[in-house]
Predict the structure.
Amino acid sequence: MIKKTDAISLVFIFLAGLLLLFIIAPIVGMFVSTAPVAIFEAAKESEIQQSIWLTIFTSITATIIFSVGAIPLAYILARKNFILKKIVLGIINIPVIIPHSAAGIALLGVISRDTALGKIAESIGFSFVNGPAGIIVAMAFVSIPYLLNAAIDGFISVPERLERVALTLGASKRRVFFTISLPLAWRHILTGLIMMWGRGMSEFGAVIIIAYHPMITPVMIFERFNSYGLNYAKPVTVLFICICLIIFVAMNMISKKRKNAETR
Amino acid sequence: MLRLVNINKKIGSFSLNDIGFSVNKGDYFILVGQSGAGKTMLLEMITGLLQPDSGQIFLKEKEINNTPIQNRNIGLVYQNQTLFPHMTVFENIAYPLKSKKHKKADISSCVKQLACDTEISHLLNRNITGLSGGEARRVTIARTLATNPDILLLDEPLAFLDIQLRRGLSSLLRKINQNGHTIIHVTHDYEEAIALANKIAILEKGIIIQTGSPHEVFQNPKSEFVANFIGIKNFFKGNLYPSEPNSNLKIVVTSGVKIYALSDEDINSEGYISIPGEIITISENKLSSSAINNFQGKIKDVFHIKLGLEIIIDIGVEISAQITRRSFETLQLNIGRDVWISFKASSVTFIKTLT
């Protein structure tokens, strides 16, 4: 009996190791095959710098702007029961399952210059297509499910009884939301925000359809690879992966620190 | 103060039917019922967390059926832990005060005063996770009092606490009531009701079957349910006196009759005694046994009950004893006959009222 279990454990460990290797190997391989000097050179290039800043800026903006609608939607989905709830829960995951280039095409149908939304933007003096606004919309579209799902889980984990008690303590519904529901669901929401940001930053397919220029880093990597080949694309790729990893690890550490502070 | 008129509510197969009672300012009103009798549901309707299907709720003569929860000024203390886990004890108590936008200095002094009243001053900077059950209840009560509610609703506030903590918390609740707070307290424990209430309602299967003072309700149970539920037959008001120094054996004097009881309550306490009818022995002559309560009396009445007979014997107070039909026939216990009764001091329960 024990032998059998051991055999299974060994198989599991082997398979798990193989999978981890699958994730790590290409990244490590790229780091190894890229000369540090080339990475430093890439970091000094103003075109690359601008592109990285643009990517960080648009992904943060997308996360912040769209969380304003996503958090209330998550709250409603966690607390209320209504007829079409299951359908709505399905709808919010659509961006995950459709090809992102298709998402870009679909979005273009709503925000290009000859649409109502496009015209309004134009009259205010900006354009979605080939502009940061379009990049933000594309990033938000593909990454919003991560925030929504985390926030729904977060609000479900808050006991409704605490909200009701807060009402009997004279708090308005608004105050109950901001002082009880939101803080208690915050850990989940913060994880969702980080995931949404990370996913937005790495988006390529939807963005390239809407805005080839100004160039976010994933598009720039593609362009360099397409025009000049693998070796020329590598330094900027490694640089961008490093920045993504640093941000991701740092954010996770902050959220963990917060978790500890909350449970005290 | 609070009046419920013909309240009906159905949830699934359970329903509350035609509930009506009124609570006056300063009352300590206890709603007694077994678990599943609908007590919590009733409290949630008073606070507005549940809407009744029909009927009216009046607070200070104003109908509040459609008043939003946060504007009713009714405080509710749930049985379960409901402190906000992301706040300290201080922040929990301050929560209702902040809702009302009091000044920071006022909030601080008010919280300190409430903490002092509920004897939790030493816990103010603590987190909720480390509190014991009794401490958490006190904090919850302090937080609810911070709203300065017109009525304080307590859902089984003494449940799941050990006897020492129950006593402490009971006297705190009594103190809160004496400071002018009207309290509605629900429980399944009749001893709590006797000890604390000035008014009682008995709730059974969604219906209120009796209301009145504890004395009225427990001495004259209107239905078999109350009598059985309470599990006591002989229920008398009395004072506790010492019988011998440094002993738990004490004497309760009720209507001039001295009854021995084992009790660790302080002497000169006021309270009630109860003697279960089934432990009383009836005999022709005085028995010599370990039972130290022996009284001579006259049989006043005989009732047929479900199992055997109930004999009422007048010993200065009327005592009800349950016996078998065979004993009744062997002893020829007819009305008017003089008999002896005996029962052990350890089977007499003394419940101190908190005055």
Notes: The domain at 235-352 of chain B is CATH 2.40.50.100 (OB fold (Dihydrolipoamide Acetyltransferase, E2P)). Residues 71 and 90 of chain B are 23 Å apart (CA to CA). The first helix of chain B runs from residue 39 to 47.
